[in-house]
Design a protein that fits this description.
Layout (H helix, E strand, L loop, with lengths): L8 H14 L8 E2 L1 H8 L3 H13 L3 E4 L3 E4 L4 H25 L2 H20 L2 H18 L3 H14 L10 H16 L3 H25 L18
Helix pairs in contact: 1-3, 4-6, 4-7, 4-9, 5-6, 5-8, 6-7, 8-9
Length: about 230
């Protein structure tokens, strides 16, 4: 008889709050009103505080004594550092993925690309962000290296809330994904790795452009807890 495992309320609240942060419901640096959020979610403060504690350990939320709970806000320099770390790791994942990719995965990635195209046409950045995350994580899983998967997923969680600056280059990012899939399908590791390098460099260049044109710099919550500017 199969055992039915029920999710705890704490886990459900954690997933919902994580999605809110990841999908930019709260901008980086924004203060979270715990009382209002608990009422909105229809839960007590206990599971919500448990979720906040878990997200704080993951580096996505910061609790500042006597000030409140804030969505962690990475500086542009920190985001650039994260991209610099992610690029070689994604290249490593791509090199491993070519060994294991199969037709079912190719079909799954093609379907994902179709959804990306729809999200771009609709101008829905939040939906695109979720689909983009799925696309990358399919490749991470293909590497079959649990340590690499965990590291890349952790980096992605930190980068995701700052995703809102990339809307001017969605078309280019989409075509990068098309090139990545093409290389993986052909089992061409070098081509796949070069496509990932281009993909990450494109995002870094956009971030640098954003930094040059924005007059207000993204600040960590400790320095400016009320700052709601963001990437």
């Amino acid at each position: 008889m199969s055992q039915i495992i029920k999710e705890s309320l704490r886990d459900i609240v954690y997933k919902q709050l994580h999605e809110m942060v990841e999908n930019s419901r709260f901008s980086p640096g924004t203060r979270i009103n715990v009382e209002e959020l608990a009422r909105e979610m229809g839960v007590s403060r206990t599971p919500l505080w448990q979720a906040i504690s878990k997200l704080e350990k993951e580096g996505l939320i910061a609790t500042i004594p006597n000030k409140g709970v804030f969505v962690q806000a990475f500086t542009p320099e920190q985001l650039l550092d994260l991209y610099a770390v992610r690029e070689p790791l994604e290249c490593l994942a791509a090199g491993l993925a070519v060994l294991y990719i199969d037709e079912d995965t190719v079909r799954q990635m093609r379907q994902n690309l179709e959804k990306q195209r729809e999200a771009i046409s609709a101008g829905d950045l939040a939906v695109y962000s979720r689909i983009d995350k799925d696309f990358h994580r399919i490749i991470y899983q293909l590497s079959r290296n649990s340590f690499l998967i965990d590291i890349l997923n952790d980096i992605d969680k930190k980068l995701r809330p700052g995703f809102i600056h990339i809307d001017p280059i969605l078309e280019e990012l989409y075509h990068d994904h098309v090139n990545i899939l093409s290389a993986l399908r052909d089992r061409n590791a070098m081509k796949a790795q070069n496509a990932f390098i281009m993909h990450n460099e494109r995002k870094r260049d956009r971030l640098l452009e954003f930094m040059d044109t924005a007059t207000a710099r993204l600040q960590v919550p400790v320095a400016a807890p009320g700052d709601q500017s963001g990437l």
